[in-house]
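Posting this for the archive.
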Amino acid sequence: MYDGIEWDAGDAFGACGGGCGGTACGAGFMRWLCSPHPMYARSEMMIYWSKGMHVPPMVTTSPDDTPRTEAGVLGETGTTVLFGAGNLTNESRLAGRWTLGRWFDACQSTGIEVSYLVTETATTGFFATSTGSPILARPFYNVETGEQDSRLVAFPEVSDGSIDVYANTRLKGLDAVLRHGMFGNASQRLDFVVGYRFMELQDLLRTHEFTFVTDPEGLEPLGTSRSIIDTFDTRNQFHGVNLGFAGRVQRARWSMDMLMKLGVGNTHSRVALDGSTTVTPPDGGDPVTYDSGLLVLPSNRETVSHNQFSMVPELGFNVGYDLTRRLRATVGYSLIYWSHVARAAEQMNTDLNPTQFPPDELVGAASPREPFVVNDYWIQGINFGLDFRF
């Protein structure tokens, strides 16, 4: 029973065989469902997982009795990675997708559909502070010596310090497609879709290190402080043609929707690396700022852009149940893949020439070099939605 009457596929909108609103639909595909509701709106919430940004070891520690030259150095006995050596922003998050469509004729043979997707901003953070114990360090590979090395943030009777790491990722997208029925009847149909696809992926990774000299015989005067900031910022925008198929199978109140699309076009990637070091002398002296950090040095501090051919395929299916003649509840799965994107954390290169550390100037090989590393990206999740026809 459906609203007090016996349910069949033709009851959904009214059978086409005898016409719909005075419009005969004919045979073949046109014997589909004539609809008195030419428009539809869909709202979906997604619990999604995405491919994270891979980062090298960024913060290390060592036992307090470790020699100063070995503290925080990768590969040395007792060195432990506190942050890094894994993926960032890959935890489960929420996303929303909203769709609005309209059929141009009562037989639903041709229509237009616009869909907008936006994800919750995925954030990851790390913070550690120390008055020398425990030891805090930032590891790197020293290209001058050819060995692993580290920069001390906090070490007993040498310096107090803190390190703060923040990363975020956000995705949004827009589809506008024309749907045209290839074949169908009162219980199933298959549409060809063609149109435009836009995608944007933004990443940010920022580190802030603060150190305070506690060694009265150090290279810098007692009480000197350093504030070191590195920023890795990327934005990827895809513009392309969207081609694919959308199908539905209807059995009484139940339905199954399937989607397969392929976006083909250009990805414009922008990578911006920036760094700064502010040295403040003791007793309220005037601070001095340099345009270099620790991982962003003169050899890689710049903004670069690239264009590259990319593909954005999408797969999805939803199971639906008609709550009323106009309202359908759905649950399903979606997967979107994007080739050739630049991720913020993956522009990070820990092969450093320390002669560039402020206030010095480069001696020897320039490292790290100009950034631009591309990889793929994917997002997948479980959808829960409502589909309203009007």
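DSSP finds no helices and 19 strands in the chain. The chain has one domain: 9-389.
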